[in-house]
Design brief:
Layout: H1 3-9, H2 13-23, H3 27-37, H4 42-58, H5 67-73, H6 81-94, H7 101-113, H8 118-134, H9 139-153, H10 158-170
């Protein structure tokens, strides 16, 4: 399978499933996907971002080697929301390495406070929550940000209201 060609030709859940099955636990095939994800081609990167969701649900350990690359990708200007959302979702659901945890927390906390989309904010909450569980001294700062978000977006966004309320109860 040519992952690049497949991504550019067809965007469907079935295609994602075929790509994930093709990658399996094969690091070389995963690298082929990663080349698409980290590409400068905005459309290709966006389509590969959707596949990240499915890869990490099946074999999250296979993308652990890309944690620092994910962080670097997020520094690119004019990055499509799908890419940011996919990385934040991955970090929220499966975590990140200790080496980058401080940078991830700061970055995701900034997403909660800036003009990022609701989808990015929803996943960034869980990414931050992981570190707050590990370092309780961050709890107060995180709590204040969540309360502020709840006031700002709670009425218009069920996702923000639901996630922030659940996280605040756990804190």
């Amino acid at each position: 399978m040519n992952i690049r060609g497949t991504l550019l030709r067809d965007r469907s859940k079935a295609t994602c499933a075929r790509i994930v099955a093709y990658i399996g636990h094969d690091a070389d095939r995963c690298q082929e996907w990663a080349d698409c994800f980290f590409s400068d081609d905005i459309v290709l990167s966006q389509k590969a971002a959707w596949v990240l969701h499915f890869i990490t649900d099946e074999t999250p350990e296979i993308v652990k080697v890309y944690q620092e690359d994910f962080l670097e990708k997020l520094k690119e200007p004019d990055l499509h929301d799908a890419v940011v959302r996919a990385i934040c979702r991955h970090w929220g659901d499966y975590g990140y390495t200790e080496v980058i945890e401080g940078k991830v927390y700061d970055l995701c906390l900034n997403y909660l406070q800036d003009k990022s989309s609701i989808g990015i904010k929803a996943h960034a909450m869980y990414a931050c929550q992981r570190l707050v569980k590990k370092y309780p001294e961050l709890k107060q700062e995180f709590k204040l940000v969540l309360e502020e978000m709840l006031l700002k977006y709670g009425e218009e966004s069920p996702a923000i209201r639901s996630r922030s309320t659940k996280i605040l109860k756990r804190l």
